[in-house]
Write a structure and sequence with these properties.
The complex is a heterotrimer of chains A (about 375), B (about 160) and C (about 375). With about 160 residues, chain B is mainly beta. In chain B, about 10% of the residues lie in helices and about 30% in strands. In chain C, strands 3-2-4-7-1-8-11-10-9 form a nine-stranded mixed β-sheet. A two-stranded antiparallel sheet of chain C has the order 5-6. Chains A and C meet through helix 2, helix 3, strand 3, helix 4 and strand 8 of A and strand 3, helix 3, strand 8 and helix 8 of C.
């Protein structure tokens, strides 16, 4: 059995479309300082730093080096992890293994991105094979549009149902002081927004944000003495896919495979009953319906019903993305780490106006690359 | 501290060109030269599990066996899924905006187990449907150069 | 951790200035299939994968995407360290020590031939303060070389000795890209690239890949009867701006070495280490690094060579493979140091074998002027 590890603090910037007032290290430092204050620690207490972002989004090679001006990594063991959209979750996993290995006691995990500094879609296109796929791919929007079309066609999910999920997420975001888009929307507004890539409307899609997130992981003994209630890591699982988009079989989801293994590790047999809240990496609103099916929260094709009945809203039995999720906030290298941080806040009872009552078990996901996935399960009990 | 205004914050703008020359490698070089010289689409077939994958590649991801056999697939196939791209963005190949709208499809070529992403000549979503039959339209022989653009697009040929 | 995880197999490609026949997947397939062939491991034996590569060098956001199938990552866990390969070994070891995994495939790839090296190197400097100077690895290392030589009274002939030794050693390494029998005079006459660094004192940029298989102690027998035990490791990042450091020193390397020595129980590195593979991207670096690693007092690195201590038949041979001066696939080169150290301890280093080697040091570095260092102590005794 892996050694016990917990999250003992986190911090986020107030994410927005453009932070002209700070450079990259300064942006990172904001999140790091907030995490240290939250955990009542100083940078001297940190044994190691794990950091991640995507180099081509800002055009900075070896970005962890410049980042050290704000990350606190100077004269510390430090490592950079970069895996696309999953980067934040991969950074969290790496920090988790730092502690679970017994080698380190307090590890700072940082994800960041300043997407205002270059063209994000261009950067995402270059994630794919240069010879076959870049010619036609329209970044994340294009890649998600073809998945959304297949899902909605297969199960008769309507554009109205998907739009309802978009409205819900932006409504939740209004309670999150860190969220980028805090929009008060109607289903009609979503449906009347431009069709950027069929069947995805402009208001279905995640924004590009400037922001950073920092999460502090600790070994068991340190976590038990922490100033904050620890959020124990019950499972950290990653599943990868084939390299080409054309290879991806959306019926064999990496998210489902990762979730099954994570449930096994955490001893969860009835996810809908046993999970209290989910922070899902929802790059577009259809994912709020489709990907909870992959998590076995409902059966295949039942995602539409989950929004129609309100089950996944703040008032429902399994709230998804109280934070507003990715379609409200998306600094890519931080995005999946924000899911982990938000799940930890829910466990710690520190989520403020977006707190779901009585959370004992929370699940967070990351999505990226060629449709690969990471799943974390956090618990209040060790 | 003085309260800065937006105009007080400077930007440094770089227009660095960062060129790359990507090796196609053994399998893709054969795929591209066959496309160029014969207007035929090659896939690799796994002798272990029988899976046929396009583009051809060295390892079958399903069973981790080395792929050795090349087979011809297409040029007809079925729309596995599609979109019509309307939003503007910078094409990393050209450095300028890619023309929109365009049809974007994953085509399951006849004889193939996975999909090939390419352009569609149809941009009216009401005329498109998952499961439609499509066919590759090749550039004339004297214009083909051993690149994915040797296939102009896929055209809808019916149900 | 000492003695709980072992390297049970290594594979590397021949390093060349251009491997036109292979794309990234084919390059990595070469080492992974060789590793499986020599260890008898199968796809099912590999629990998870840690890769190391660079988005900037590959010209691809998410540089690990191309290799998913060839490392066998489908529906498995894979993560990418965006730093030197020595850190990928560390992350792989952490995953095993956590108890969640029994084995880890560690693999690194790079093709310097596909991009423009000085542009890629220049992109590591922050765009606001340093990048417009047009500096890269070579020009900044020239500053470091000059500062080191001035401070410790090291002559250009002293530095040239490193090239004579390492390129001479490389003649016996079938994987080396550059090798030859040179005199100090010939090195001195090879022309300044950036004064005081001469052509024969600068590593080439290579195409190549390297892979290792790590296994938990209870299953090493399944793969080898010559396990190489991971006994100690330390890594540390230095401050970012070159102007913030005394470039003649490397506090980060000193800290990393101390951590590795403490973990491995090394008190006197000169006496207890039998062979070392250090990251000599430029000839002067071998002198600096071996001094800071404690092989000799500061300023006496050249004396190690002159007195025959660090030559092939000395008591502490340094870079019997020819080191990074003989082959420098960025990111891969650190993993090759670990692989070469493992080959020495397995008695499989062929013509550049150091007879009876029991304890080896492998050193990786990343960033410019040694921004990050990682030091490994390996042993063929548990």
């Amino acid at each position: 059995m892996p050694k016990r590890v917990a999250i003992i603090g986190s911090g986020q910037t107030d994410h927005t479309s453009r932070r002209a007032d700070v450079n990259i290290p300064e942006l990172i430092k904001e999140a790091v300082d907030r995490a240290l204050v939250d955990a009542e620690l100083t940078i001297d207490d940190i044994d190691a730093v794990v950091i991640g972002n995507m180099e081509h989004f800002e055009g900075i090679n070896l970005s962890d080096m410049w980042a050290s001006e704000g990350s606190g990594a100077v004269m510390k063991p430090a490592m950079k992890i970069a895996t696309g959209g999953t980067t934040g979750a991969s950074v969290a996993a790496c920090a988790y293994y730092h502690c679970a290995s017994g080698l380190f006691d307090r590890v700072l995990a940082i994800g960041w991105e300043k997407l205002s500094e270059s063209d994000t879609t261009t950067g995402i296109i270059t994630a794919f094979d240069p010879i076959v796929e870049r010619l036609t791919l329209a970044g994340a929007v294009g890649g998600l549009a073809i998945e959304a079309n297949l899902y909605m066609t297969s199960y008769g999910i309507t554009q109205e149902q998907v739009a309802k999920a978009a409205v819900m997420a932006r409504k939740n975001a209004q309670r999150n002081p860190h969220a980028h888009l805090k929009l008060d929307l109607t289903v009609e507004q979503v449906l009347n927004s431009p069709m950027i890539a069929y069947p995805i409307h402009y208001l279905d899609m995640c924004p590009t944000s400037d922001g950073a997130c920092a999460v502090i992981f600790a070994s068991e003994d340190v976590a038990r003495k922490s100033a904050n209630p620890p959020a124990w890591v019950k499972a950290a699982v990653c599943r990868h896919n084939h390299p080409y988009i054309g290879d991806v079989d959306w019926r064999k989801s990496t998210l489902e495979s990762a979730a099954i293994e994570a449930y096994r590790l955490a001893g969860i047999t009835h996810p809908r009953r046993e999970l209290d809240v989910i922070e899902l990496y929802d790059p577009a609103s259809f994912a709020l319906l489709s990907w909870i099916e992959s998590l076995h929260i409902c059966g295949p094709g039942e995602g539409g019903k989950m929004i129609d009945t309100g089950a996944i809203t703040m008032e429902g039995d399994i709230p998804v993305n109280p934070s507003g999720g990715v379609i409200s906030t998306n600094p890519i290298g931080a995005t999946a780490l924000i899911r982990v941080a938000e799940a930890a806040l829910q466990i710690q009872g520190k989520a403020g106006a977006r707190q779901v009552e009585g959370v004992r078990t929370a699940l967070a996901t990351g999505f990226g690359g060629s449709y690969w996935s990471e799943v974390f399960i956090l618990g209040r009990a060790s | 501290m003085r309260r800065e205004k937006e105009k007080d914050y400077l930007y440094i703008t770089l227009h660095t060109e960062l060129p790359y020359r990507y090796s196609a490698g053994r399998y893709m070089s054969r795929f591209l030269t066959t496309l160029r010289d014969e207007a035929r689409i090659l896939a690799s077939r796994c002798t272990h599990c029988g899976t046929v994958l396009v583009p051809p590649r060295v390892v079958c991801g399903n069973c981790f066996a080395e792929m050795e056999e090349f087979v011809e697939v297409g040029p007809r196939g079925t729309l596995k899924t599609f979109s019509v791209i309307n939003f503007p963005f910078i094409d990393p190949f050209t450095g300028v905006q890619r023309p929109v709208p365009y049809g974007y499809a994953i085509v399951q070529l006849d004889g193939c187990d996975n999909g090939l992403p390419h352009f569609l000549d149809e941009i009216d979503v009401h005329k498109l449907r998952i499961g439609l039959r499509v066919e590759a339209v090749f550039k004339p022989q004297d214009e083909r150069e051993g690149a994915m653009t040797d296939i102009l697009h896929f055209r809808v040929i019916g149900d | 951790m000492s003695g709980q995880v072992a390297i049970v197999g290594v594979a590397q490609t021949r390093f060349q200035s251009e491997k036109r026949a292979q794309n990234y997947a084919e390059l990595v397939h070469e080492v992974v299939s060789e590793l499986f062939r020599t260890t008898g491991a199968t796809h099912d034996d590999v629990d998870n994968i840690v890769s190391a590569s660079s988005d900037f060098w590959d010209g691809r956001t998410i540089s690990n995407m191309a290799i998913q199938d060839v490392v066998g990552a489908y529906m498995k866990s894979e993560s990418k360290v965006s730093s030197d390969g020595t850190l990928a070994v560390l992350y792989g070891m952490m995953r095993i020590l956590s108890g969640q995994y029994k084995t880890t495939l560690v693999v690194a790839h790079s093709k310097g031939s596909e991009g423009v090296p000085n542009l890629i190197a220049n992109a590591a400097f922050d765009p606001i303060y340093q990048r417009q100077l047009g500096i890269d690895g070579l020009s900044t290392s020239a500053l470091q070389a000059r500062r080191y030589m001035e401070k410790y009274g090291v002559s250009e002939e002293d530095v040239a000795l490193v090239s004579v030794k390492n390129l001479g050693n490389a003649r016996k390494n079938p994987y080396a890209q550059v090798a030859g029998e040179f005199t100090v005079e010939e090195v001195m006459q090879s022309g300044y690239l950036a004064e005081p660094i001469k052509k024969l004192e600068a590593s080439p940029i290579s195409d190549g890949a390297c892979a290792l298989l790590l296994a938990r102690e209870d299953i090493v027998d399944r793969f080898t009867d010559k396990p190489v035990w991971l006994k100690g490791v330390g890594h540390c990042q230095d401050s970012y701006y070159l102007g913030d450091r005394d470039l003649a020193e490397s506090d980060a390397l000193a800290v990393a070495a101390r951590r590795a020595y403490t973990m491995a129980g090394i008190d006197d590195p000169r006496r207890e280490i039998d062979v070392a593979e250090v990251y000599d991207a430029f000839a002067y670096q071998e002198l600096m690094w071996t001094e800071i690693l404690g092989f000799c007092p500061r300023g006496e690195g050249a004396e190690l060579i002159r007195s025959g201590v660090s030559t092939m038949d000395g008591t502490l041979p340094v870079n019997p493979s020819g080191g990074v001066l003989a082959a420098h696939a960025v990111i891969v080169a650190g993993l090759v140091r670990v692989a070469e150290a493992a080959l020495q301890l397995r008695g499989e280093a062929g013509e550049h074998q150091i007879p009876g080697a029991k304890t080896a040091l492998a050193h990786g570095s990343f960033g410019y002027c040694g921004h990050m260092h990682c030091v490994w102590i390996l042993s063929n005794e548990k």
